[in-house]
Design brief:
A mainly beta (72), B mainly alpha (372), C mainly alpha (59), A: mainly beta, 4-stranded antiparallel β-sheet, C: 59 residues
Chain lengths: 72, 372, 59
Amino acid sequence: MDQEMLAPLAGQVLSIKCAVGDAIEEDDEVVVIEALKMETPVFAPCDGTVKEIRVKEGDSVEEDDVLVILST
Amino acid sequence: MIDGLHSLLFQSGFLHMTLGMLVMWVIAFVLIYLAIAKEFEPLLLLPIGFGILLANLPLSDLMEPGQGLLWRFYHHGIQWEVIPPLIFLGLGALTDFRPMLANPRLIFLGAAAQGGVYVTFFVAHAAGMSLDQAASIGIIGGADGPTTIYLTSKLAPELLGSAAVAAYSYMALVPIIQPPIMKGLTTKAERVIRMKKGRKPSNLEVILFPLAATIVVVLLVPPAAALISMLMLGNLFREAKVVERLTKASQNELLNIVTIFLGLPVGATMNADTFLRPQAISIFLLGLVAFAVSTACGVLLAKGMNLVSKDKINPLIGAAGVSAVPMSARVVHKVGSEADKKNYLLMYAMGPNVAGVIGTVIAAGVFLTLLR
Amino acid sequence: MSEALSVFVTGIVGVFAGMALLYLTVKLNAFVAGKIDARRAPAGEPAPEATDAQEDGRP
């Protein structure tokens, strides 16, 4: 089953800490979003492997935009 | 020839230095050091620190009424009440009111955090300050530099330097002052509360808001008109999206220029004679009280609202009613994520944060209405 | 002292009254903007999938 990882807040994607195919555990830091000059790490909602990365570094994201799709 | 050298020596400043001036130099260097090495509100404390140094070099006429350079900046910029409203124009162009519009009840947290302003006002007056002075010290608790300077320059200009330095120093110290109070007043169960998502305000709504807010606030507290009107004009520039040049100019060039002319003369009002009094120490202590009480009031009101409301508010965001934008919102986010690292409070905290700016302006307007 | 007390009380009441007014303004603003958006959406914008749902809802 696929699990979408959503942006918890609007901001700019500062860095992506995973690659397609990586195995991820719950609470791993997957993406870092910068908002209001503060770095906010976004953590994986569950275990899984990275199926697709929908954003790249420097992208602006809105709240609830899909960042990464995990297959569990 | 010897006479010439003699009079040159006597007209130089060296022989006119006083101990008080040296103490002020130390204060100036400490502020400059904190600004450069620790990045404590450097945009303001650096020019303020330099202004303090200049004000304590003897025989220069920089602050001489009617002729000195810094006096002219002070007189035409601050006494004429031009600069603080222009700062607000820039802040308005930088402020996104959406988090507040999405969650209107958070406005009340921005109101509660003005509690420290009035508590401190009362305490300061009880401690022997005049009503005008007490109001100027209380407003430090609003954590809004331009408003503090605006109100103090009108009510108690003799306190301007101390009040401004206290306000900006404590703003830099928000990450140290607020967390213990926030943690002390909340339980772990409260800190992990996740906020319910607000709705998304439409574009029309964010354009209409600055117009509506201007009308309402100016009708309610006319003395706050200069500040609130400029804040909302800047915001209208931003949200209208058709005057990008004006938005950019307000956010960048204009804001940066007036920041220079705000800090320097404010620092220059702090000469040894007016600053080195026991009063200055009480201003700093009372300013700290103001910050702490404001933080506590915001958190406590959020807890109070949870008693009657079905959608629970994370009480931490009450602390962001202290309008140090966006520092206190960041602090809320950090404290929240210590309790639950997947709880993202930042944008929710921006709601009370921007409401707090309006709240502080209203508080200043109320003081001006009652005391003038 | 009594003057300070009256400023204290009036001040707190004044700020809360002002912010309550701001709250009502924001609510009213959202309501009015919602109405205008709803009326304008079907006619103004091309809105390819204009449905009945847009009559009272947001576009």
